[in-house]
Amino acid sequence: MAAGIIVLSLSAMALQYRITATALETRQAELLSAELSGFAQFYEQRRIPGLREAIAARAALTTPDEGLYLLQDRNGTTLAGNIDRWPGALAPEGALFAPAPLSEIAIDGTEYLGVARELPGGFPFLAARAWTPVTGTLDELRGTILWVAAGLSTLALLAGWLVARAVVGRIGRINALADRVAGGDLSARLPGPQSADEFGALERHVNQMLDRIEALNRATHRLSDAIAHELRTPLNRIRQRLDRLEGQDEDVAAIREDMAGTVRIFDSLLDISSAEAASGQRPGLVPVDLSAIAAEVYELYEPLAEDRGLIPEARIEPGAWVLGERNLIAQLVSNLLDNAIKFTGPGDGVTLSVTAGERHMLTVADTGPGVPDDIRATVFDRFTRGERDRAVAGHGLGLALVQAIAARHGAKLSLPAAPRGFRIEIAWPSLPRP
Amino acid sequence: MTTQTARILIVEDDAEAAAALSAAVRDLGCEPVVMQSYEDGLRAAGLAEFRVIVFDRMLPGGDGIDAIAKIRAAGSTALVLVVSALGRAANKIEGLEKGADDYLAKPFDADELRARLRALLRRQEMVVMDNDLVTFGDLQIRMKARTVHVKNAHVPVSPKEFELIAYFARNAGEVVTRMQLLENVWNLHFDPQTNVVDVHVGRLRRKLEQAAGHPVIHTDRGVGYVFDPQKDPVG
């Protein structure tokens, strides 16, 4: 907007400049024309002698800076004038004292506009007015315009900056708040009283919106807590009654196992949604050593893999620190190793690796049958299980939880095509080593 | 006799759960005191001496884990076991961070509950157990050096195996469940789908049995393990 005002002002000044320039030109032309008609009268009355006197009189009053006057005879001898030589390249044109055509003349850097004629009998005649005063005036005007423009621009910029700073400052407050909320701090609000203008209204609306989001979030948490409570309490009663049953030990054990499975599904679903809800948020995350956690979980699974006839291997670079929740990361690594062990057979390799870098890379790869084609696209969805693997225990929640935990940590997950087996890569935002 | 009976406070509003908790407490030879609301529980904790306090979470009047700090501030030395339907790993970690000594999710197994209570009672008894040398017959554990000897012969164990045997030693003679091992030895609070812990215990058990010539770690009917080097292998 400031730029628009500046452009408008500058255009106005340019127009003023054009008008002034035209006016000055017209005035010079009028002066010349008046002089020419004076000379014409003298010439009409007494021919060359009359004109010679008139020119001599003008020449005496006029310095060559202001105007040129010259009358010569047919031999080039000067009869009258304030210069003594005919300007070299100038060719006479036109008749007697008519105001047109005009010639442009330049002598020693001074520019003139006037008439160069050859009067009857071969008398060269020159009358011209210097453009210097005009150019001087215009130069001065240009200078003034330039200063005014510079001043105006500075003022406009300053005013624009002040207004922008006030606006940007208030937008900045809202942006900072949005960042905090996006970072997971749902209790963040714009502090202080809100002004009566549109910004104040916006701030009030943002605060009201956040109140609502926070209330909904609390309600969701209460609901899942309530579900947990309301379902687990009756399950607990069933469990206690089972414990009191005598005989039928096998059935009781099977029911217990089924109940444990039910609770596990239920926990996984709640874990997935709570990790998803906290996705990318910082609260609750602390610096943890991804390398150390991976090594611990690997160590937990290594003997099991060996017992199953697999060839487990860990390549873990130390010092890959991330902002995370230890138990969740351990659960992620555990789910991946668990899957790798579940879906491979004796002689297969299972490799866990961590490489530290700009983004720490955690990779679990095996040489088993890989992901069946029928579920490749949906492998991270809840309850996805391959037809091929119906016999393998599980509910199809392991990878869904892995994905939710990765997202919770801002980690990117990919399934690069491997020549053999299953391979998953997770890129974690890195932290400087504490 | 009554003066020696350890009292355990149970704060639980669900009658069935309270009955199961009381039964477990009696099984351990202790006396249960049941309260049904947050306020009553908190008041009772301040009125009498309890060895262990079992607190539920979603109680009428409040959340049991908020009571822990108040109970401690009032000077009680009771250990707190939270038993709650809020049973996810995140809930457990929250409870432990807020000062619970142990956390058991509902629905719970009676054996698991007894094992947890027993471990807490035991912890209460051996407040000053920083003996460097722990001996079970011909089995010796040196805590500082982190070594295990059987009949004066060194038994090489991995660092994790040592932690495992140290935890077993602290609960010698008692049933220790897989979940307890996973939580206390591996500091993991989720339920792995495979029984990874069994493989570790199996390896340690074979090592110790080979060195000792008799079983040192016994399996207890699918509930868990009992570390008892002096137990008669036949019995």
Automatic annotation (TrEMBL), chain A:
One of the record's GO cellular component terms: plasma membrane
Start and end residues of each Histidine kinase domain: 226-432
UniProt main location, coarse: membrane
GO molecular-function terms, A-Z: phosphorelay sensor kinase activity
InterPro entries with a match to the protein in the record: HAMP_dom, HATPase_C_sf, HATPase_dom, His_kinase_dom, HisK_dim/P_dom, HisK_dim/P_sf, Sig_transdc_His_kin-like_C, TCS_sensor_his_kinase
Pfam hit, one: HisKA
Gene3D superfamilies: 6.10.340.10, Histidine kinase-like ATPase, C-terminal domain
Protein localization: Membrane
Record's keyword terms, sorted: Kinase, Membrane, Phosphoprotein, Transferase, Transmembrane, Transmembrane helix, Two-component regulatory system
Enzyme Commission number(s): 2.7.13.3
CDD domains the UniProt entry points to: HAMP, HATPase, HisKA
Reactions this protein catalyses: ATP + protein L-histidine = ADP + protein N-phospho-L-histidine
Domain HAMP: 165-218
Name of the protein described by the UniProt record: histidine kinase
Organism, as annotated: Pseudooceanicola nanhaiensis
TrEMBL record, chain B:
Statement: the UniProt record of this protein carries the keyword Phosphoprotein: yes
Gene Ontology molecular function, alphabetical: phosphorelay response regulator activity; transcription cis-regulatory region binding
InterPro entries: CheY-like_superfamily, OmpR/PhoB-type_DNA-bd, Sig_transdc_resp-reg_receiver, WalR-like, WH-like_DNA-bd_sf
Gene Ontology biological process: regulation of DNA-templated transcription
DNA-binding region(s) from the entry: 131-229
Response regulatory domain segment(s): 7-121
PANTHER family: REGULATOR OF RPOS, TWO-COMPONENT RESPONSE REGULATOR
Name of the protein this chain belongs to: DNA-binding response regulator
Classification of source organism: Bacteria, Pseudomonadati, Pseudomonadota, Alphaproteobacteria, Rhodobacterales
